[in-house]
Amino acid sequence: MLLDAFDKVRKNGSGLIVWPDGYAADSIVVRLMLWPNALTPDGSMRMIKTTHSQFGVFRVLEPIERPALAKPNNPAPRYPYSNMVHRVIGSLLLEFVVDSSGSAVPSTMHDVWPRGKPRLTGDLGRYYDDFVEATESAVATWKFRPAAVGNCHVQQIVQLPIRYRIPGHSE
């Protein structure tokens, strides 16, 4: 019935698309109004009083997206020996790509340092670098559930926060 109505409107050349005020051009709101016999014999439009009803005509499906997630039972990063001996604690944010097979890509691994803050130097810089190296070594062996768009596995950039705390040590 709806297809017949569209076909008749198209054949008569009397189709009218109205974009209501207040809707963005990329909006997905669609308002469809069909007025039978709205054209008068002289070609002018005649408004027919109608009642309004809402019903679903179609829907737009978009694929479900799932982020990459570390699988359970991945080994924790090894606490760097020197950092443990000196009772150094710390945290870092590691960024890397998880490919479509669920593996971390080692060549993409790097720490994310706060913008505008100078990097650590001296002993603190070495301790921090040891934490980064231990984290990269562990994550390179981890398995992930790859990100997906619909049923397709895709690569994704992941940011992984890691916190190093000495067991039994209160912060």
List the helices and strands and how they pair.
Blueprint: H1 2-12, E1 65-66, E2 69-70, H2 81-85, E3 90-98, E4 110-111, H3 122-139, E5 144-145, E6 147-149, E7 152-154, E8 156-164
Antiparallel strand pairs: 1-6, 2-5, 3-4, 3-8, 6-7
Widest β-sheet, arrangement of strands: 1-6-7
Number of domains: 2
Mean of residue pLDDT values? 82
Order of helical and strand elements: HEEHEEHEEEE
First-last Cα distance? 71 Å
Low-confidence stretches: none
Helix content: 10-25%
Rg (CA only): 30 Å
Supply the number of helical segments: 3
How much strand content do the residues show? Answer: 15-25%
| CATH T-level fold name of the largest domain | TolA/TonB C-terminal domain
What features would you describe in this structure?
The protein is built from three helices and eight strands, in the order H-E-E-H-E-E-H-E-E-E-E. It is α+β, with helices and mostly antiparallel strands. It folds into two domains: 1-60, no CATH class; 66-164, TolA/TonB C-terminal domain, CATH 3.30.2420. A three-stranded antiparallel β-sheet has the order 1-6-7, with no helix packed on it. The protein has a three-stranded antiparallel β-sheet with strand order 4-3-8, with helices on one face. A two-stranded antiparallel ribbon has the order 2-5. The longest helix has 18 residues, at 122-139. It is elongated and about 95 Å long. It starts with a helix and ends in a 7-residue tail after the last strand. 9% of the residues are buried. The mean pLDDT is 82.
Quick structural gist:
This protein has about 170 residues and is of the alpha+beta class. It has helices at about 1-10, 80-85, 120-140, and strands at about 65, 70, 90-100, 110, 145, 145-150, 150-155, 155-165.
